[in-house]
Fold this sequence. Notes:
The chain is α+β, with helices and mostly antiparallel strands. The chain has a domain of 60 residues. It is 33% helix and 12% strand. The chain contains 4 helices and 3 strands; from the N terminus they run αββααβα. It has a 3-stranded antiparallel sheet, with no helix packed on it. The radius of gyration is 16 Å and the shape is globular. The N and C termini lie far apart (38 Å).
Amino acid sequence: MTTLTDTRSQRAVDQNDGVYFLGRPDWLDDQLLSALRAEAADRRGDSEQIREQHFAEVGRVGRQLCESREWSDFVTASAQEATCSGKANYRYATRAPSPGPHPNDELRQIQ
């Protein structure tokens, strides 16, 4: 059985709602980032659409990242002690047909 929960906020999100991080941790080097991007692109064809986004299970590279000490230390330092739950996916935003800016445009410009 698959259960989907709508986690969209019913109010404006602010700094008290969670961890915000903008940038790239030092341990996320070009080689790892390239491998993640390639794996995500490869798995996109098998993604499942849920509302405006598509989701696909991570592969070997994504799984290794999820289970890595670097990732758990990064999350723990930013929030609280964390361990891998075993659940992970790639999320793909689908551009809306509207002429307005896409929410990720600003982030893409920063990278």
